[in-house]
Structures are given as C-alpha cells and as structure tokens.
Design goal:
The complex is a heterodimer of chains A (275) and B (230).
Chain A: H1 2-21, E1 26-32, H2 33-37, H3 40-52, E2 55-61, H4 63-71, E3 77-80, H5 83-91, E4 95-111, H6 124-134, E5 138-140, H7 146-157, H8 162-165, E6 170-172, H9 177-187, E7 190-194, H10 195-200, E8 207-211, E9 218-226, H11 236-247, H12 249-257, E10 259-260, E11 263-264, E12 267-268
Parallel strand pairs in A: 1-2, 1-3, 5-6, 5-7
Antiparallel strand pairs in A: 3-9, 4-7, 4-8, 4-9, 4-12, 10-11
Helix pairs in contact in A: 11-12
Chain B: H1 7-12, H2 16-49, H3 55-65, H4 70-81, H5 96-132, H6 137-147, H7 149-165, H8 168-174, H9 184-193, H10 197-229
Helix pairs in contact in B: 2-5, 2-6, 2-7, 3-5, 4-5, 4-8, 5-6, 5-7, 5-8, 7-10, 9-10
Classes of the chains: A alpha/beta (275), B mainly alpha (230).
Chain lengths: 275, 230
C-alpha cells in the first residue's frame, strides 16, 4: 500500500516537473486566429527558434480577448490587428510600443448564387448597404475580435447603426473566424473574413469571394511588448528579441515568403511608420 | 499538423505531433483522475459514514456538482491563475498543470459522489459486523474503501470519461498552444475552426478508440484483481 502510494506520488510529481522544464527559454504570444489558422506561425516560429533558441508559445484568440490577456499580464507579447484597440492598450500603459508588422485584407464572401447581387463590386460600403436593405443573411463574429471591429466600422461608414438596425438577417455568433465561416457555409450567408483565413479554410462549400479590393478592407497587424513596469513577470528580453526579429529585414522576408497555393497571404510593412 | 492528410494516415505513420497530443491528453486526464481520487474517495467515504447536521444538503450539492459546466470551471480556474488573479504568481496559466487543476475540479465531485453512494450501500451490509468488532471510524472508512475497491474503479472511469471528453475548461486555461497544451479535444476544436472537418472527425474517432482502450485496460485489471482476491 505504502509503496503504491509512493509510486503514485512520484508519477504525479514527474508529470509536473516534466512540464516545468519546458518553460526555460520561451515566451507567450497572444495572437489572433488568422495568424495561427493560416499557418503563418508554423512557418515563422521554427526560423526564429533556429536563430535564437527561443520557444514561442502562441495562444490564438480574437484580438479583443488577446488584448485582455495582455492587460492581465498573462502574455509577454501581443500580435494583433485592431489599431484603435492597440493604441488604447498603449495609452493605458499596458504596452511599451506598437510596431507595425504586416498587412493583408478583408474580403466579403457569400454564396455562389449571390442573392444580394453584389459580386464583383469594389465598393464594400455599398455592398453592406445592399445587404441591409435586402435583409440578406449575414454572419457577424460578434466577439470583439479585430475582424468584428472592422465589420462594425464598415457599418458605421455605411451610415447604418447596426445595434438598432439589425434584423433577423443579422446573426451574431460570438465565435472565431472558422466557426463564422462554417456557419456561413452551412446556411449560405455572407460573412466578412480576413483573406489569410479564407485561403487556408477547407470547408468553403458554396462560398466564393463577392467583394474585394476596396482600400477600406485593409487589415494592419501590429506587435507590442506587454509593459514589464505593469507586469514584472513579462519576459522583456526574449519578447523584444521576437519583436525585433519580426520587423527586421530577415523577419519581413520570411513573412513575404509565406504562401498558400502560390498566393502570398501577408505583406510586410514594418518600414511604414504610419501603418 | 501537416495539411491535407487524414487522421488515419497520421495514426498509421505514427505522426510525432499526433502522438505528442495523445500523450498529453492521457497525462493530463489521468493525472486529474489520480488527484481527484486522492480527494474524492476519502471525502465520499467520510460523507457516507459520518452523520452531521446538514449532511443531506451536502449530498445534494455534491451530486449536483457532478454536472459542473466545464466552461464555468475553466473560467474560474483561469481567473484564479491569471497574473491578475489571486494565484497569478504561480505562473501556471497556459500550462499543462493548469489543465490538470481544472480537470481535477471537474472530476473530484464525480468520484466523491459515486464513492459516497457505493460506500453507503456497503455500510448497510457491514454495519453490524463492524460495530460488533468495535472498529473505529478511520478503520471503518479504510475497510469499506478496501472492500469496495473494485466497484470504485467504475467511479474512476466515470471521472476519466468526463476528463477525456471535455474541451471547455482546458481550452480556456491551457490556451491550445501547439506542442505544449494541445490535446485531442482542443485539436478537434481547432481543426473544426479551420474547416478541416474530415480531419476533425478522424481525430474524434482516434479519441474514442483511446477512451475504449483505457476502459478495456481498467476492466482487465479489475477482473484480474477480483480473481486474485478470490
């Protein structure tokens, strides 16, 4: 009985010790689903690890949740895409500095039959007005993610107060990009998505791109170190090394080199100070 | 995991990423069951034997806790372990340990409630004998747990089933980090969100096979034990 208990105690402590070792030279990055689901991190992180020996652990969340993770001090670095929310995070003192890294764009996807009659348009605002006027099914992330914030902003630009003007056609699912695309594919609805997630998404069903190429669909990504003055546990040195690498010419080239079916998903623009 | 492959291919080729995920799933859920058993079995047995005011209410609450929603447990453990929370200095959030803690909270009430019922039934059978032999309370608990050990395997398996099946708690406290806190259930959730439904279903089948294998092992061990005990 005693030896059995001892063995059990050893087994349990071995499990705990084993995972503790893995924490040595690593940082935790809170990022968005688009960067992870598209495979970008799978492409970048091995290169960064080869160069620096630093393990980057990515928790993929919506931008709103990722920023909250940073605010609580549970991440070392944020890699997200909602400039206004990022600047608010900085102004509250939770971040040190924001670095623009890269951009891609949003696209409006919908059923091949295009019941809204907007396919091929380059005017996303007009397309949104049409969706609302005709009451065509639209899936909203509804989760405060970067994509959700971009969508809300487009309704505002279209002069539509979605909180009061929404009808049964407007469905807020409160979930990630993949879940929103799965829902749209299953119900032949329209949905706003970042291009990277769309290209790598495998359950497109009848969905096709309806509207793209409007400059208002621009989607900028930024990276920030969580402020060690607020959260002393932040791994400042390793985190800053990761940021420096992302914006270096080497990191920027690695981002540009990432392709799916020959198509580039993200465009580096760290050298553009206004981005 | 590489794209455009089936789960069956991953299993047959012994894909290291998949094996690591399976290994972590088993380590987390089995550790949680062991810890929950260390808490739940003595607690359930004591509750079966000790009379005190409010005991009925405790039993009702304990039975109800078997249905704790994983997402609520995950959120509570998240808030406790977050750097901004009371246990933040432990630095456990987004680690396998946090996942073990969350699953232990989920599983302990199941093991405790089932133990309470098993021991109470056995107590009715043994009461006169143990009273006549003048066995003290600790001795009674130990005797009853020992004699109920084969039935208690079912309680452990119920707990394991709960732990192996849930995703709501561990995805919140573990973060589904590739190669670190990704388990079978969080991988299935991830592949679903990537729209790779065939791979998600395939991984689901692999998970079910693993759960059956663990149950078969436990069953075999129980039969062997019963035979040895006569």
């Amino acid at each position: 009985m005693f030896t059995r208990r001892l063995l059990m105690a050893i087994a349990v402590s071995a499990v705990f010790a084993g995972s503790a070792f893995a924490q040595d030279k690593s940082i935790l990055v809170a990022s968005t689903t688009s960067t992870q689901d598209s495979g970008l991190f799978g492409h970048l992180l091995p290169m960064f690890k080869d160069k620096t020996g630093i393990d980057v652990k990515v928790v993929a969340q919506g931008t709103g949740q990722a920023i909250d993770t940073g605010r609580r001090g549970d991440a070392d670095v944020l890699f997200v895409h909602a400039k206004a929310a990022e600047e608010k995070f900085l102004s509250e003192g939770f971040g040190v500095k924001r670095y623009p890294v890269m951009y891609n764009d949003f696209v409006l996807v919908g059923p091949k039959s295009d019941p809204a009659g907007i396919k091929g348009s380059k005017d996303i605002v007009a397309a949104f007005k049409t969706l609302k006027d005709k009451g065509i099914d639209f899936i909203s992330r509804g989760d405060k993610s970067g994509t959700h914030q971009a969508e809300l902003n487009l309704w505002k630009v279209a002069g539509i107060d979605i909180a009061t003007d929404k009808g049964p056609w407007y469905k807020e699912i409160g979930q990630g990009m993949g879940a929103a695309l799965n829902t749209a594919a299953a119900s032949n609805a329209y949905v706003l998505t970042d291009r990277a997630t769309w290209l790598s998404f495998k359950n497109k069903g009848e969905l096709v791109i309806e509207v793209e190429g409007d400059k208002r669909l621009f989607n900028q990504y930024g990276v920030m170190l969580v402020n060690p003055a607020k959260h002393p546990n932040v791994k400042q040195e390793f985190g800053q090394q990761f940021i420096d690498w992302l914006v270096s010419s080497e990191g920027q080239k690695a981002i540009a080199d990432f392709k799916i079916n020959g198509e580039q998903l993200f465009y580096p623009n760290a050298s553009d100070p206004g981005a | 995991m590489p794209g455009d492959v089936s789960a069956l291919q991953l299993v047959l080729t012994g894909d290291p990423a998949l094996l690591a995920i399976v290994r972590l799933s088993l380590i987390v859920s089995l550790s949680a069951v062991v810890l929950a058993a260390l808490i739940g079995i003595p607690f359930g047995a004591a509750l079966a034997l000790i009379q005190f005011p409010g005991r009925q209410a405790v039993i009702v609450v304990l039975n109800a806790l078997m249905g704790l929603p994983p997402v609520v447990v995950g959120l509570a453990v998240f808030l406790a372990l977050s750097r901004a929370g009371p246990l933040g200095s432990w630095g456990l959030l987004f680690t396998p340990k946090a996942m073990v803690i969350a699953q232990t909270v989920l599983v302990a009430p199941i093991i405790a409630a089932l133990t309470r019922q098993t021991i109470e039934d056995l107590w009715l059978e043994y009461r006169d004998e143990l009273n006549a032999m003048n066995v003290g309370p600790v001795g009674r608990v130990a005797t009853l747990i020992w004699d109920a050990r084969f039935s208690l395997v079912t309680a452990l398996l119920a707990g394991f089933g709960r732990a192996a099946a849930e995703v709501g708690a561990i995805i919140i406290v573990g973060g589904n980090i590739d190669g670190f806190t990704r388990t079978m259930t969080t991988a299935i959730a991830l592949e679903t969100s990537k729209g790779d439904l065939p791979l998600a279903v395939g991984l689901g089948m692999v998970l079910i096979v693993i759960v059956i294998a663990v149950n078969a092992l436990a069953w075999t061990a129980r039969r062997a034990g019963e035979r040895m005990a006569g």
